[in-house]
Design goal:
The protein is mostly helical. The protein has one domain. The protein contains 7 helices and no strands. Helix 2 runs antiparallel to helix 3. The longest helix is centred in the last third of the chain and has 29 residues. The radius of gyration is 18 Å and the shape is globular. Keywords: Membrane, Transmembrane, Transmembrane helix.
Length: 205
């Protein structure tokens, strides 16, 4: 039987608000641009154009997430920020310890990532019928983001991009990943914490 879940209900409730639409568009564009920057090696070079593109991407995502936060109670915004920051710092510190990777572990990591992707995408569809899959979907993507943070420096080391600029670029990627992590944890709080969005954007339900 079809069942609308907390996250879907809350998004539908606020979809008519211009601030919500604006936040959603900025977040989607920021996430897409960030993924493109990460995947295209030409955009990793220390040029003025690439720096401007990275700056625009970071600002779009940050502004979108900031607008989105306005629909949550302040206490949840702060609590989720603390959780995301702590998780981000722990994974960044862990990433500094990884300098080599055995073939067996590469295969295991590949299988884990593929599994999380498959489960994550399937959960999008299944969440329209069973609410538990909303949490499963967000959990999969949170795990993928944490794995991305851990292995970002190793990726650049593996591709011989160990320059002074790469340190700056890795920092940009890490900040981008932590903001994305914050976004998914915040969305998950709609189900786990049973919070509701403030669709009037003024502090009242």
């Amino acid at each position: 039987m079809y069942e609308k879940c907390s996250i879907i209900n809350e998004f539908i409730k606020c979809e008519s608000k211009s601030q919500f639409k604006g936040a959603f568009i900025l977040i989607i564009v920021g996430l897409i641009l960030g993924f493109v920057i990460f995947m295209i090696r030409k955009l990793h070079r220390p040029t003025l154009t690439n720096t401007i593109i990275a700056g625009i991407t970071a600002n779009l995502l940050s502004f979108g997430v900031t607008l989105f936060c306005g629909f949550f109670e302040f206490k949840y915004v702060v609590m989720v920020a603390i959780v995301a920051f702590v998780l981000g710092i722990i994974t960044i510190l862990l990433s500094m310890k990884i300098t080599s990777f055995q073939r067996r572990w590469k295969m295991i990591l590949f299988i884990i990532i593929c599994g999380l992707l498959v489960i994550g995408f399937l959960s999008i569809v299944l969440s329209y019928f069973y609410c538990i899959f909303e949490i499963l979907f967000n959990t999969c993507w949170i795990c993928l983001i944490l794995l991305a943070i851990v292995f970002t420096p190793y990726y650049f080391y593996l591709n011989n991009e160990s320059t002074d600029y790469s340190s700056y670029f890795i920092g940009f990627i890490n900040v981008f990943e932590i903001i994305t992590l914050y976004l998914f944890v915040l969305i998950t709080s709609l189900d786990i914490g049973q919070t509701t969005l403030k669709c009037d954007y003024g502090g009242n339900e």
